Every structure is written in C-alpha cells, then in structure tokens.
From TrEMBL:
One of its GO terms (molecular function) is carbohydrate binding. This is Glycoside hydrolase family 31 N-terminal domain-containing protein. One of its GO terms (biological process) is carbohydrate metabolic process. Residues 27-213 form the Glycoside hydrolase family 31 N-terminal domain. CDD domains: GH31_N.
Length: 247
C-alpha cells in the first residue's frame, strides 16, 4: 500500500474543509456537531459508493439509501480554522483536531475546566494508506496504555476487545465457538475506546469486507497502533466522552 503524505488546503466551506493529498485525493473534514466530526476520503476526488445506509441523525434511512455527502439533520455549528507552517487546526467548542504534515491527525477534547486534553491520534508513521493496484484502504491509529476497546457488534470472546484482530464479513457461522470463532454474520465496524478520563467512538461507514486489529499486531518500526483495513472506501466518525455517536 502507498502512504498518503503531502497535503494542501483545497477548500474551506461552512461545514468542512477539504485537503488535496498528493495532488490527486480529497481528504474532507466535516464538523457535524460540537462533539461529532467526520473524515471522508475521496480516492482521485470521487466516491466508489455515493450512498449510505448507516447514518440516520433524525429518522430511518430510506430503502434507496442516503446521499453520503448529505449533512441534513446535523447541527452544523461551524468551526475555527488556524493555519500554521506545517499544520492546521480545526476546532469546535468540544473537539479540536490538528492536521499534521505529512498527513496524520491529532484529536483533543475540551474538559470541564475548559482545558484541551488528548483524545486520540493517528500513527505519525503512515496513518492513511491506499492500495496502488486496487481499492484497498487502511487507517492506523496510536494505542496508548490503559485503553480498553468495546463494540463491533456480535463477536466471539470477551466484550473487552483489546489484543485481538477481527474480520467483518457476513458469514453464516453455524455452530461457532463462542470464545474464538471469527468472522460472524454481523458487520458493525464501530468501536468505543475507554480510558480513565474519557471515552470516544469511532465508526467506519463502509460495507466492504474489513479487518480491525486492536493490538494483536506488533511492529518494531512503529509505536503501538491499532489498524483498520478494508477492501474499498473509508469514512470515519469520531466523538468525545458523554456525547452522541450517530450510527
């Protein structure tokens, strides 16, 4: 896979900013609510699938799906944008994200005392990757001590998912082992990360077969990380502790 690296600010709109990455891909960062951001990657400026059946902020999704670019139903509170030499900062009242050069994101949340505190961060060494010979994508984030991972819907084993790798592929696994069998039928790439001070949700709105590694893989050349990899497309929603996660 090829790492996405160099970006320039390509556009600033009421609900989002857009970055041109490596001269060909669009990396879009939306502010949907004070506590809800969306990251959307358009390979070569286009979407492989322009509909979603997972995002329903006010009512159920129609059978034909919802326009993937639609922001209808969200509060759209606006944002503050700061531009620096090798980074830019997008902030709402509750969340702040720093976009670094080369491309990786660093997230912070605003605590009850009004101070910004670390929430999540991409892996600085190769955060976003695309398959140069197909549609595959990957996203790497840092793992920090004390984090616990939950979610993913119907999966075998403990509710706390740390240290495991899971596959999302709709498979009728009749007579499966409740402790270890994977994959199972449900496809819900949504995780909740819990720390002592904060929790946040991360949802990949992607129907492609995918894999989530929550600490099973170790690599001497990178800090501790978690990985999401899919056969095509990537879309991320993140939110902070005590906030809403639209799924």
């Amino acid at each position: 896979m090829k790492t996405l690296k160099n970006w320039t600010l390509a556009g600033q709109y009421d609900d989002r900013i857009e970055l041109l990455v490596d001269g060909q891909h669009l990396f879009c960062l939306y502010v949907l609510e004070e506590d809800l951001f969306r990251v959307l990657l358009k390979r070569n400026g286009e979407l492989a699938l322009d509909r979603t059946w997972s995002i329903a902020p006010q009512q159920d999704v129609p059978w034909e799906g919802r326009d993937r670019l639609s922001v209808a139903g969200f509060g759209l509170p606006g944002y503050r944008l700061e531009q620096h030499d090798q980074r830019l900062v997008v902030a709402s009242a509750a969340l702040r994200v720093t976009v670094h050069q080369p491309l990786w994101l660093e997230w912070e949340y605003c605590g009850a005392d009004g101070q910004w505190r670390p929430l999540a961060a991409d892996r600085p060494t190769s955060a976003y990757l695309l398959n140069a010979h197909g549609d595959g994508v990957a996203h790497y984030q840092r793992r920090f001590g004390g984090e616990r991972y939950y979610g993913l819907g119907e999966k075998s084993g403990d509710l706390e998912r740390s240290g495991r790798r899971f596959e999302m592929r709709n498979l009728d696994a009749m007579g499966y082992n409740a402790a270890s069998t994977d994959p199972l039928y449900k496809h819900i790439p949504f995780t909740i990360t819990r720390r002592e001070d904060v929790s946040f949700g991360l949802f990949y709105d992607n129907l492609s077969s995918c894999w989530l590694d929550l600490g099973n893989e170790l690599d001497n050349y990178h800090p501790a990380y978690r990985r999401y990899q899919a056969e095509a497309g990537i879309w991320i929603i993140t939110c902070s502790s005590g906030r809403r996660c639209w799924t």
